[in-house]
Write a structure and sequence with these properties.
By secondary structure, this protein is mostly beta strands. A hairpin with a 2-residue loop joins strand 1 and strand 2. The radius of gyration is 24 Å and the shape is elongated.
């Protein structure tokens, strides 16, 4: 199935990077474990909270590469020779995971905190500096050199 993206418009120039980000987000968005929340804390601050019950800080890795935030949780295998545990119900997931988020340009990870089984990753988006630049208009027709500004 081919889908036409809005970025195929001839009026949007230089958005190849944005298209690639959307395609990358579509690939990583399928898994639902671990569950997470995304909060807007105001003033350009965001928080991602992941439910990571049973994971210690040394079993978690948070990294950013090429605007992709990656959170990986690795479980220690059960110790060899440990007595077999008999669960009557096992509702707490005991598997590793990899969760990714695509970050917009300018968003930075401030810090990560693990508390009560919740991994909180705080992000900050500094206010962009807005600038206006006037472009001089040149006239054509001068031979032998660049066009002169009007």
């Amino acid at each position: 199935m081919n889908r036409t993206l809005v970025f195929d418009s001839p009026l949007l120039l230089g958005f190849d990077h944005t298209r690639a980000l959307i395609e990358r987000a579509a690939k990583i968005g399928g898994d639902v474990y671990p569950p997470y929340n995304i909060e807007d804390l105001g003033e350009g601050r965001l928080r991602i909270t992941l439910a990571v019950a049973g994971f210690a800080p040394e079993h978690l890795q948070v990294s950013v590469e090429d605007n992709q935030l990656s959170i990986v949780g690795r479980r220690e295998p059960e110790a060899v020779g440990a007595p077999e545990r008999a669960f009557l119900h096992r509702g707490i997931a005991a598997r590793g995971f990899a969760r990714g988020f695509i970050l917009a340009d300018g968003i930075e990870v401030d810090h990560a905190t693990l508390e009560d089984g919740l991994l909180k990753i705080d992000l900050v988006r500094p206010e962009p500096v807005r600038r206006v630049r006037n472009i001089p208009i040149r006239t054509a027709g001068h031979s032998g050199g660049p066009a002169s500004p009007v």
